Amino acid sequence: MRKYLAYLPFKRFRHPPPIVAVLRLSGPIGAVSRFQPGLSMASTAKAINEAFSMHGVEAVALSINSPGGSPVQSALILKRIRALAEEKDIPVIAFAEDVAASGGYMLALAGDEIYAHDASVIGSIGVIYSGFGFTGVMEKLGVDRRLYTAGESKAIGDPFSPEKQEDIERIKDIQVQIHDFFKTVVRERRGRRLKGPRAKVFSGDVWVGAQAQKMGLIDGIGDLRTILRERFGEKVKIRLVSNKKGRLSSLLGFTRGFDEVPDENGSWAEGLIAAIEARIMWSRFGL
Question: 43 an active-site residue?
Answer without folding.
Answer: no
